[in-house]
TrEMBL record:
InterPro entries reported for this sequence: FAR, FAR_NAD-bd, NAD(P)-bd_dom_sf
Entry protein name: Dehydrogenase
Record GO biological process: long-chain fatty-acyl-CoA metabolic process
Span of domain Thioester reductase (TE): 5-132, 136-218
């Protein structure tokens, strides 16, 4: 088995590299990395015995000219599976600001894959919060990921088999809480830890689709194994399905873990934060000139508003794809989410001093 991988230093990339190398002692993985610094970061996240089994291919996927030069220097080898993980995962950018990385970067990865192998096949990693048709995109991330898949199938579908792997909101390992990058749900955890927000926004009964990183990597590695053993191209959606968690339940789990951490530091617990509906939040925004929330400056309120808009959208709309072709059901977030939050707290002890939104950090 030969593997070309982008995003090796990311949330899924690090544990995927570790899992594949552990399962195949003779495997060497070619990793598309921006720089020697990225290579060093990847090596530091792996066991020393694995360092020599990483083959770096230095190229910035957002730089088409650089990718073309790197592709021209490659000698095509045998069959290879390309796993494209790299992406801009921001929820607050418009689509046109994400096209170069998420759409053109995906095409550039396929150009490298095609140059590196006479028999390539692709696993395009997307999000379970989008699809290429019949979808109303809530942000630029969802739209750009769908546009990338459409573009790849149009340009490369006749030249290589394409499989897709879509996962939902990834949090820490179900056993240890560990994760390589604190994206997705973690900015909300940070906000609730660093401030005492006067409220959050969303449907408290809305269902969040959250999955632990180890389960996602298990499913993704299974897809790699399936294709390497001659399996047909397929589509996998690694979402929570029946184990989705209510938005209010997730917020209360976060509060509970933060209260435990504050208690260990001799700090008082914060009261439960109210969760407002979109309509209530819209009224408060319209009446902001007359309403003076304690401790919230105008600049702080803009940041607060942006965060509420991002998470309120997903808490008010539980539109997410159902699980498809997974080997095992997703674990229950009531079991693993406290570990993920505790791990974040352990890594950010200085953030734990609660303060109001308007108070300087």
């Amino acid at each position: 088995m030969n593997v070309l991988l982008s995003g090796a230093t990311g949330t899924l990339g690090v544990p995927l590299v570790r899992a594949l190398l552990a399962a195949h002692p003779a495997l060497r993985i070619t990793c598309v990395l921006r720089s020697g610094k990225s290579l060093q970061a990847l090596r530091e996240s792996l066991e020393p015995a694995m360092h020599g089994r990483i083959v770096p291919l230095l190229a910035d996927l957002a730089d088409t000219g650089g990718v073309e030069a790197a592709a021209a220097a490659l000698q095509p080898g045998g069959a290879m599976i390309g796993v494209h993980l790299a992406a801009d995962v921001s929820w607050d950018k418009p689509c046109d600001e994400m096209v170069q990385v998420n759409v053109e970067g995906s095409r550039n990865f396929c150009r490298l894959l095609h140059a590196a192998s006479i028999a390539p096949q692709l696993i395009y990693v997307s999000t379970a919060y989008t699809q290429t048709h019949g979808w109303t995109y809530r942000n630029g991330y969802e739209e750009s990921k769908a546009l990338a898949e459409i573009s790849l199938r149009k340009e490369f579908g006749a030249r290589m088999p394409i499989s897709t792997f879509s996962c939902s909101l990834v949090v820490g390992d179900s056993r240890t809480g560990e994760i390589a990058r604190f994206n997705g749900l973690y900015p909300l955890i940070k906000f609730m830890a660093a401030f005492n927000p006067p409220f959050l926004v969303g449907n408290k009964d809305g269902l969040l689709d959250i999955v632990p990183v180890d389960w996602v990597v298990h499913e993704l590695a299974g897809l790699v194994e399936w294709l390497s053993s001659g399996g047909e191209p397929t589509e996998v959606v690694a979402s929570a399905g029946n184990t989705r968690i209510r938005y209010e339940a997730a917020v209360r789990l976060i509060e509970r873990q933060l209260s435990l951490a504050r208690g260990e530091q001799g700090q008082p617990s914060a009261p439960p934060v109210p969760i407002l509906r979109d309509r209530q939040w819209g009224f408060l925004k319209r009446s902001l000139a007359a309403w003076q929330p304690p401790g919230i400056s105008a600049s702080d309120f803009r940041y607060f508003e942006r965060l509420l808009q991002v998470y309120g959208t997903y808490a008010s709309s539980d539109r997410v794809r159902a699980p498809l072709n997974v080997r095992t059901p997703a674990p229950d977030p009531h079991d693993y989410l406290p570990k993920a939050i505790a791990h974040w707290v352990d890594r950010h002890p200085r953030v734990m001093r609660p303060r109001t939104v308007g108070e300087a950090a």
